[in-house]
């Protein structure tokens, strides 16, 4: 048998099943005076799915095993139908009728239906709407185009498969039929075709790579949410894509076949003639499958992308009632244009390694934000024309004056890391040299994003009435170090990591660890912040938190400044909520009273003018369905936002992430109530070694005393205590803060000066998939 290569290897295939007929019930949708109706016999049959390409190899057959949506779709079932009768000119003769049946058959289903006596008429059948009111408003005399242009919207995969019916929308018609009054009328067989296509996927790992590449997820993307009764006849369709939420395949296996049923998506053909470059020619709305991979070779995360279609070179049409089969065979560590760094705001690489990523490719939708509203190659002001290093720590990337380490080519961004662990932010600029978007490049030789390095965390069960501290439940696995850390050692300032204002995607450089236990406020200046350099490795000076036109400065928020647009264009600007930025710089002592005085803030201490609780993907605290004493709610992100700063596969932790770090999940001081292992050496260690799974036993993870930046931009308590953000908003325009220092653990700190969203804290990411 001839094989069709798809990416690295692939096939197209068909699969079909049918059942038997049981009982039929009928109901008439009234409202039109249509005269006498006649009982008419007909037989319904679901057509086989059309094979695109080669025959299916029988030894590869297998059941769809995705557990995310528990799909066991009866792809040939005819469970209910709407019957429409039109004249030969396409005018509706009778009110539509709805018929339900307990049948799951797709082969020769006999039925008795009611039609109006007429000569040379057209019969249309729409099956499996699962809705006896769907066509009730279609009036006698209306045009056939009213039916064929009708659409169904399916926002979730479960809806796409008919909910509990587990069936698929179908349509069929027959022409030239005559119904005679008083006669036995048999219209014969009417064949139904599915309004969806079937796509199946399997991946195979060569033995030479299976111990170095870890497959974490399979996704299907750009699946339209709209199905049209009438068949698409020309591309592109849809012209504007509103995607359906399709379930991911988490921790997939090479032994499984994964199947989706998707609406038509015709995006046409291109002039490409090179199989390796099909992805480069892909239209923006074309359906694609992704294999998400963690590499132990270079510590990075990648995505392998397949665009199904009628061929492997230039076709991007997915047609109804057709079956597309693809097998991806991964045979080496080599990458090309079909293998990109997994899209995110942060890319993790090992020293001297290289990545390529598509700056227009993001699928996160947590909080309702849409990436193409900000980065879009079809809009001049949102299209990236150049890219360069905005800031970097020493040799995180290196001298990019000639544009050989960070550059744009064919709408892809290429990055080569320098020889040392560190951090950098690269920015994409439009043709007017305005920043369109920016990305964090985290160089770390320890591969902190690898699943094998994650630390599983168990938290307490809880509800609106209590924290059940004697019952541990499986939580999300934590990253082994802070985001942006360059080490994870005790007493090492490199473990502090980068800082983030709540809801913003871009990091600020780490503060220096100077004196253990130093609780003074300090300016965000070169004295107290790690050295940073520009694109040409020239030193970037920081004279104060306020700034005097430097790359890094602090400005007071306002209706013009406290916006997403401003924050994207100015990723190095600290947007302050204190009435005077820098007001607490070098205040000569550790008195924190002024930071808790609401009179010293504007906008309730939030950098975002007017507040937005959804920036990091969660929902407002007031909308949470479970809320315990106004300190914790189930309002954290279930899906990543485009502003989430964590790498691919990781996300910000929820507000209940820290419960297990005290005896009962509440704020405590004192040895007996706190769940950490390094009593007596906390100051020397500059961290708490917190137990991750049990109280006073099991594995630990180090959480440094990283301090933070106050609402005016100044540095505070580095080496004395620490704070960590979650994705959840708290009450009264606060953020949910985890607060620690020697002999103190507060899973929920809501002190006014600590919880203001303009403050900048480090982040400890968790796995996107709970329990992984």
TrEMBL record:
Residues 259-325 form the DUF4906 domain. It holds the Pfam family DUF4906. InterPro entries: DUF4906. This is DUF4906 domain-containing protein. It comes from Jilunia laotingensis.
């Amino acid at each position: 048998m001839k094989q069709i290569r798809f990416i690295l290897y692939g096939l197209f295939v068909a699969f079909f099943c049918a059942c038997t007929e049981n009982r039929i019930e009928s109901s008439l949708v009234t409202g039109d005076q249509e005269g006498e109706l006649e009982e008419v016999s007909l037989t319904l049959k679901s057509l086989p799915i059309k094979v695109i390409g080669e025959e299916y190899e029988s030894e590869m057959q297998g059941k769809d095993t995705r557990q995310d949506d528990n799909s066991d779709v009866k792809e040939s079932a005819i469970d209910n139908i709407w019957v429409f009768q039109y004249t030969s000119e396409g005018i509706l003769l009778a009110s539509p009728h709805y018929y339900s049946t307990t049948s799951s058959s797709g082969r020769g289903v006999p039925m008795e239906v009611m039609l109006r006596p007429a000569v040379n008429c057209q019969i249309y059948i729409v099956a499996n709407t699962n809705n006896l009111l769907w066509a009730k408003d279609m009036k006698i005399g209306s045009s056939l185009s009213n039916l064929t242009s009708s659409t169904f919207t399916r926002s979730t995969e479960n809806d796409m498969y008919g909910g509990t019916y587990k069936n698929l929308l179908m349509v069929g018609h027959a022409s030239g039929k005559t119904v005679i009054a008083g006669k036995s009328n048999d219209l014969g067989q009417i064949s139904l075709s599915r309004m969806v296509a079937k796509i199946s996927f399997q991946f195979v790992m060569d033995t030479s790579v299976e111990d170095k590449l870890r497959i974490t997820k399979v996704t299907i993307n750009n699946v339209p949410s709209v199905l049209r009764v009438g068949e698409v006849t020309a591309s592109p369709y849809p012209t504007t894509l509103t995607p359906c939420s399709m379930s991911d395949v988490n921790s997939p296996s090479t032994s499984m076949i994964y199947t989706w049923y998707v609406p038509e998506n015709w995006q046409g053909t291109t002039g490409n003639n090179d199989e390796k470059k099909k992805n480069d020619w892909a239209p923006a709305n074309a359906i694609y499958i992704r294999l998400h991979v963690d590499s132990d070779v270079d510590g990075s995360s990648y995505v392998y992308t397949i665009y199904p279609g009628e061929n492997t070179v230039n076709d991007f049409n997915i047609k109804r009632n057709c079956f597309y089969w693809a097998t991806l065979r991964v045979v080496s560590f080599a990458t090309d244009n079909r293998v990109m760094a997994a899209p995110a705001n942060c890319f993790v690489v090992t020293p001297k390694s290289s990545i390529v990523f598509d700056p227009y490719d993001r699928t996160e939708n947590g909080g309702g934000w849409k990436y193409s509203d900000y980065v879009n190659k079809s809009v001049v002001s949102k299209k990236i024309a150049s890219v360069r290093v905005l800031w970097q720590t020493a040799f995180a990337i290196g001298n990019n004056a000639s544009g050989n380490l960070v550059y744009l080519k064919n709408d892809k961004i290429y990055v080569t890391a320098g020889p040392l662990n560190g951090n950098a932010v690269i920015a994409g600029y439009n043709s007017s040299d305005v920043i369109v978007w920016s990305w964090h490049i985290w160089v770390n030789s320890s591969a902190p994003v690898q699943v094998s390095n994650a630390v599983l965390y168990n938290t307490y069960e809880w509800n609106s009435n209590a924290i059940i501290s004697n019952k541990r439940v499986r939580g999300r696995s934590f990253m082994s170090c802070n985001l942006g850390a360059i080490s994870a050692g005790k007493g090492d300032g490199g473990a502090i990591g980068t800082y983030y204002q709540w809801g913003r995607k871009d990091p600020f450089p780490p503060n220096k660890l100077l004196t253990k236990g130093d609780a003074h406020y300090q300016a965000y200046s070169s004295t107290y912040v790690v050295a940073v350099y520009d694109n040409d490795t020239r030193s970037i000076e920081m004279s104060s938190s306020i700034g005097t036109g430097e790359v890094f400065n602090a400005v007071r928020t306002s209706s013009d400044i406290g916006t997403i647009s401003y924050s994207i264009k100015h990723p190095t600007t600290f947007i302050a909520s204190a009435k005077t930025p820098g007001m607490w710089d070098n205040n000569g002592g550790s008195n924190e009273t002024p930071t808790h005085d609401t009179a010293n803030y504007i906008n309730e201490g939030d950098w975002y003018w007017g507040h937005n609780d959804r920036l990091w993907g969660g929902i407002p605290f007031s909308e949470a369905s479970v809320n315990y004493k106004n300190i914790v709610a189930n309002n954290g992100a279930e899906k990543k936002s485009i502003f989430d700063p964590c790498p691919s596969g990781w996300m910000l932790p929820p507000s209940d992430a820290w419960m297990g770090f005290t005896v009962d999940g509440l704020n405590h001081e004192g040895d007996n109530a706190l769940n950490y292992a390094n009593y007596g050496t906390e100051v020397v260690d500059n961290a708490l070694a917190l137990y991750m799974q049990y109280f006073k036993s099991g594995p630990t993870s180090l959480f440094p005393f990283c301090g933070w930046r106050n609402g005016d931009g100044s540095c505070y308590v580095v080496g004395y205590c620490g704070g960590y953000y979650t994705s959840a908003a708290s009450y009264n325009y606060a953020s949910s803060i985890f607060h620690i220092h020697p002999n103190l653990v507060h899973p929920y700190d809501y002190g006014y000066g600590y919880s203001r969203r303009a403050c900048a804290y480090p982040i400890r990411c968790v796995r996107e998939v709970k329990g992984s």
